């Protein structure tokens, strides 16, 4: 069995008003070349295909053209990520979905389409458990938490035939302990989470959501593929790649990272105008943030930097006067910030329906927040809960 794992394309990404489309076009072409040479049995995209909830027509066209070319090589499964609209994915599945191209809009119980099966050139059977992003705002009667879905899929994959089957788990999910890119939010309060030890023991676990490529919890068979381009400046000089996996039923897994160029590099440079001029050649063809150390008037500094760096795409130009004295701000002392429960309680008091039981609503919110942080299943007496 051969599998190609990619993720987090974020088509439509704009950085400081500069479209990243040329970078995506470059890396998509590289991925297609890698896929043609590798000849996988299955291509997995683990979410955040788009950067926007409602992508533009041009971004949709690029996505469908790329996925169509991949599907001509091998079946392709795409998970809905946190950036994306599940209803759009359901529509794409209805319009374009077939044995070669699948769009997974929401979690499904194993017996109701949550486990997909694919054949391989070696007469093996791939059993794929596909878990798209689990939105915590989804009605609790229609969804469980991420940990519950992970457990359900793990149980369903446990009965794989060791002589024939290859078990794959794919998810757009935050696994605790993962290393974030430098500029990603480190506290993602609305993220569904699971622990590394809760990942089903499978041949390979393919993850999306975290942009930094990495193995998960010391498991070389569980990996975030990461984004194919540096989405922002938290990913400076990071080697981008797709994951190539080879395995046999009951055998060892061989995994290789196929490098991607990442498109145009992101750069940050600081110095005087003279120092920036000396670095012009090294900044050619990059997207750059420039900080100019310059005393006196800042008028025309941007134009001067543009003249010095004619082959650089300037994202921002900031002028920093080294002679300027910054006055310290007196501390207001240790003032405790209100917690989420306090903020929600104030919101309910101000906005709630007069007939609502404010105290009960606040209690439900605090119970839900505690369960989310503890990764526990929560039952409300007012609702009927249905487990995955």
Descriptive terms for the model:
6-stranded mixed β-sheet, Purple Acid Phosphatase, chain A, domain 2, globular, 388 residues, Double Stranded RNA Binding Domain, alpha/beta
Helix/strand layout:
Elements lengths: L1 E5 L7 E2 L2 E2 L1 H18 L3 E4 L11 H15 L4 E4 L6 H11 L4 E4 L10 E5 L5 E7 L14 H12 L7 E8 L1 E2 L17 E2 L9 E5 L5 E3 L2 E6 L15 E7 L7 E7 L5 E6 L1 H6 L8 E7 L7 H8 L4 E8 L19 H12 L6 H17 L14
Parallel strand pairs: 1-4, 4-5, 5-6, 8-9, 9-12, 10-11, 12-14, 17-18, 18-19
Antiparallel strand pairs: 1-15, 2-3, 7-8, 13-14, 15-16
Radius of gyration: 24 Å
CATH structural architecture of the largest domain: 4-Layer Sandwich
CA(first)-CA(last) distance: 29 Å
The CATH homologous superfamily of the largest domain: Metallo-dependent phosphatases
Principal-axis shape: globular
Quickly name the level 1 CATH class of the largest domain: Alpha Beta
- The stretches of 5 or more residues where confidence is low (pLDDT under 50) are none
Which class of secondary structure composition applies to the elements?
Answer: alpha/beta
Q: Can you describe this structure?
A:
This protein has 388 residues and is of the alpha/beta class. The chain has a six-stranded mixed sheet. The protein has a six-stranded mixed sheet with strand order 7-8-9-12-14-13, with helices on one face. It folds into three domains: 259 residues, Metallo-dependent phosphatases (Purple Acid Phosphatase, chain A, domain 2); 55 residues, Double Stranded RNA Binding Domain; 35 residues, no CATH class. The chain contains eight helices and 19 strands.
